[in-house]
Inverse folding.
């Protein structure tokens, strides 16, 4: 067999392929209908935008604002809680460190006084027994 008989069904670049009329009716109508629908939708959208009056634009603006506000309010509780938690964690950490430092300092001071007094008492007892 020659290559020309096997390639008979493949169109050449210069060959004109018949249009959609040779396709079945269901395949032929689908793209046209969908393109027509897209064009209709775009046309309706353009006319709607052109025909909108100030009140319609105000309603749209108000609706968008309400949606954005609602979305922000949904997230704000989480964000605020997280920020408060982080802030409190820092404040509490500093407070605990300061409290520990104050307790350590106070304990050191108290122990110094107690030991000084105890040593002084022992010295005075020894001096009293010597006399």
């Amino acid at each position: 067999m020659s290559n020309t008989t096997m390639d008979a069904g493949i169109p050449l670049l210069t060959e004109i392929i018949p249009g959609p009329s040779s396709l079945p009716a269901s395949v032929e109508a689908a793209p046209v209908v969908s393109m027509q629908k897209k064009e209709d939708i775009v046309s309706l959208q353009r006319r709607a935008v052109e025909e909108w009056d100030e009140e319609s634009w105000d309603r749209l603006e108000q609706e968008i604002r309400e949606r954005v506000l609602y979305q922000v309010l949904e997230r704000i509780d989480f964000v605020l809680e997280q920020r408060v938690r982080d802030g409190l964690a820092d404040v509490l950490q500093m407070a605990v460190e300061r409290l520990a430092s104050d307790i350590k300092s106070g304990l050191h001071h108290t122990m110094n006084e107690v030991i000084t007094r105890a040593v002084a008492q022992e010295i005075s007892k020894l001096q009293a027994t010597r006399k």
About this structure: Residues 20-33 have pLDDT under 50 and may be disordered. DSSP finds three helices and no strands in the chain. Helices lie at 3-6, 25-51, 54-130. The CA atoms of residues 67 and 73 lie 10 Å apart.
